[in-house]
Amino acid sequence: MPSSTSIITAAVAIVASAGVAQGAAVEKRYTTVQNVQHTFYGYPDNSPPSAQIAYDCGRGYSAGGKGTYDDPRTFATAPGEFNKCEIIWDPYTEKYLIFEDTCDQCESDWNNGQYHIDIWTGSSSQSGGQAQINCEDQLTPDRGHTVVRNGNQNHNVNTGPLYSPSSGCHPENVFPNNN
């Protein structure tokens, strides 16, 4: 018959093992991807020029979203870089993003081992034209930023526009203001 000390030692080992397994499960769900190139796109430089997207993730084939978890903003990337319809948290824009579209430059970068996301600026009309493209260039940071995969739904969200034909470009709605 085992001694009470060996029973207690075994129980502590089981509890410790369960804690490690639980911690590993949490860690596996929440991951960060470092140095992700961020660019922006909209109606005038989508291919073809439109608000049309590649994947229907439950809200039709039109880009959009406010950036909340329940209404994430569309992002484009290379197939296989993220899971189709995957929602990520992007600290640079302080928005939740959903993979609903593809991006040629993202595919080229992914083939060279570089993560790249292209974020929908928000205007679903042709009226933005060159002003919208100029805004996208202004919003694009000069270095990569971290994104969070499989994170929680409790991040502070900035639902402010990135671009609007009526109010123009909003670099104040990216963090840390393009740096």
Name some characteristics of this structure.
179 residues, alpha+beta, six-stranded mixed barrel, two-stranded antiparallel ribbon, 3 helices, signal
Structure description:
By secondary structure, the protein is α+β, with helices and mostly antiparallel strands. The chain has a single domain, classed as Barwin-like endoglucanases (Beta Barrel), CATH 2.40.40. It contains three helices and eight strands, in the order αββββαβαβββ. It has helices at 4-29, 104-111, 129-139; strands at 31-41, 73-77, 87-90, 95-102, 116-120, 145-149, 163-164, 168-169. A six-stranded mixed barrel has the order 1-5-2-4-3-6. Strands 7-8 form a two-stranded antiparallel ribbon. β3 (87-90) and β4 (95-102) form a beta hairpin. The protein is globular and about 40 Å long. The termini are far apart.
CATH fold-level assignment: Barwin-like endoglucanases
How many beta-strand segments? 8
Strand order of the largest sheet: 1-5-2-4-3-6
End-to-end Cα distance: 66 Å
**Main β-sheet, in a few words?**
6 strands, mixed, barrel
Number of domains: 1
Query: Class by helix and strand content?
Result: alpha+beta
Helix percent reads 25-40%
Shape: globular
CATH architecture: Beta Barrel
Tell me the β content.
Answer: 15-25%
Radius of gyration (CA) equals: 21 Å
Order of helices and strands: HEEEEHEHEEE
Determine the number of helices (DSSP H or I, runs of at least 4 residues): 3
Uncertain ranges = 3-28
- What is the residue-averaged pLDDT? 84
